[in-house]
């Protein structure tokens, strides 16, 4: 009861319901005054090796979910999640917990209480190396103080170094973008890492990435769900990961629940993974470091699958290189292109062949295979004529110009002249002292049956 009195003195107009043992605040000040950490301390209780917190008749506990680095093949962090229980020890949904606050001040209190609880538990955690991921409510960010001095005080009190903290900000609109930017800057200046959470949900955009410069971006699980069933969505996921890496962000994919989704995550090039497939959140904190995830086996499965079905380039080179070099040899001797490339163009996997000069400009028009000509989509007819087109921007062309005599091959990409996925072979050669490059588009991921038809 003494602890309750001390807590109530910190908040005017607070009261205790007659049938409850825990205080419930009815009105809280809009700006909590120092010492904020000491005001919240009586709400925490030590239970064995862990801490719990009391809030509006509920008992709050910390659950941790491991986050894995695919490349390191081990845990690199833990996301702290709040778990609430009523007086009968029945679980209360987090959604219902966060609906309890009725003012900005109460939102602020609950947010800080959760962070206090998580850090108190993590400070005594056996794993003293990895990151602790903490969520920050967007409502608290937009309504809170410009500098969250509470958090700095909390780290000093618990002794947890700021570089071990990743502050997660949910990706959604805020009423005050400048306040959000200042808040993120504060945590970064404090020495914490910052993360944008749920990127890919309804309000995502790269402008926020550019404005906030987070260290880590957590992709919303909906991106993974779509990529599981839709090959185009999988390619988009891979592209998003690539763009985020180019923006200087590490990428975490959450919501991984199956082996197939783990394969998609690895293939997308994400840095970190999180989800039920690897480990569920647990309030049994002492047991978490001892759980083992077989990332070696997962990567072994990926390598086998990747060699067989996901990377056609080596198979294509081994199959087409002799024919491709034969066509180049005929061209270098002066044979017309339609004759030199006739064997290639008769293959059902080959779409088109074209010649380019040393400046990347196409010579004459493209030679299109009969199969491709029959299947051309009239909607893309404005793109079909490529005479004098300039392809110098393409990496495969620059490589062929820089390294004549060597066959180069791309990864699958969208062909602008036909709006279909293809890979391109390119080979630089000399004709009458002038450098030229023969390019050959091949349908992406051809089957072994298609190859044998040639």
Automatic annotation (TrEMBL):
SUPFAM superfamilies: EAL domain-like, Sensory domain-like. GO terms for molecular function: cyclic-guanylate-specific phosphodiesterase activity. It holds the Pfam family EAL. Residues 43-295 form the EAL domain. Gene3D superfamilies: EAL domain, PAS domain. SMART domains: EAL. This is EAL domain protein.
């Amino acid at each position: 009861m003494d602890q309750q009195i001390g807590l109530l003195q910190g908040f005017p107009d607070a009261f205790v319901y007659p049938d409850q043992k825990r205080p419930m605040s009815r009105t809280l000040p809009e700006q909590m005054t120092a010492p904020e950490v000491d005001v919240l301390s009586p709400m925490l209780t030590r239970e064995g090796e862990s801490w719990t917190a009391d809030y509006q008749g509920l008992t709050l506990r910390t659950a941790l979910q491991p986050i894995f680095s695919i490349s390191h093949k081990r845990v690199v962090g833990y996301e702290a999640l709040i778990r609430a229980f009523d007086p009968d020890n029945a679980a209360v949904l987090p959604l219902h917990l966060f609906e309890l606050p009725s003012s900005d001040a109460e939102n602020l209190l609950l947010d800080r209480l959760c962070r206090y609880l998580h850090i108190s538990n993590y400070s005594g955690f056996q794993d003293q190396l990895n990151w602790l991921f903490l969520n920050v409510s967007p409502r608290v960010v937009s309504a809170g103080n410009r500098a969250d001095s509470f958090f700095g005080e909390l780290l000093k009190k618990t002794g947890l170094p700021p570089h071990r903290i990743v502050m997660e900000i949910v990706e959604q609109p805020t009423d005050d973008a400048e306040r959000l930017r200042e808040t993120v800057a504060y945590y970064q200046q404090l020495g914490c890492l910052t993360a944008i959470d749920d990127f890919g949900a309804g309000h995502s955009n790269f402008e926020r990435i550019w404005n906030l410069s987070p260290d880590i971006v957590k992709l919303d699980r909906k991106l993974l769900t779509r990529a599981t069933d839709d090959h185009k969505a999988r390619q988009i996921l891979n592209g998003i990961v690539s763009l985020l890496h180019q923006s200087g962000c590490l990428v975490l994919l959450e919501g991984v629940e199956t082996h197939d989704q783990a394969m998609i995550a690895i293939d997308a090039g994400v840095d970190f993974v999180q989800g039920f497939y690897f480990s569920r959140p647990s309030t049994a904190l002492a047991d978490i470091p001892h759980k083992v995830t077989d990332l070696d086996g997962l990567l072994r499965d990926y390598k086998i699958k990747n060699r067989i079905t996901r990377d056609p380039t080596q198979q294509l080179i081994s199959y087409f290189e002799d024919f491709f070099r034969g066509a180049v040899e005929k061209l270098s001797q002066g044979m017309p292109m339609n004759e030199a490339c006739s064997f290639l163009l008769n293959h059902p996997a080959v779409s088109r062949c074209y010649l380019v000069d040393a400046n990347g400009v196409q010579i004459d028009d493209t030679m299109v295979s009969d199969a491709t000509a029959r299947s051309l989509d009239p909607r893309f007819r404005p793109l079909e004529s490529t005479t004098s087109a300039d392809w110098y921007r393409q990496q495969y062309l620059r490589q062929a110009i820089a390294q004549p005599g060597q066959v180069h091959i791309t990864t699958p990409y969208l062909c602008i002249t036909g709006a279909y996925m293809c890979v391109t072979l390119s080979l630089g050669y000399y004709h009458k002292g002038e450098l030229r490059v023969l390019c050959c588009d091949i349908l992406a991921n051809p089957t072994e049956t298609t190859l044998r038809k040639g």
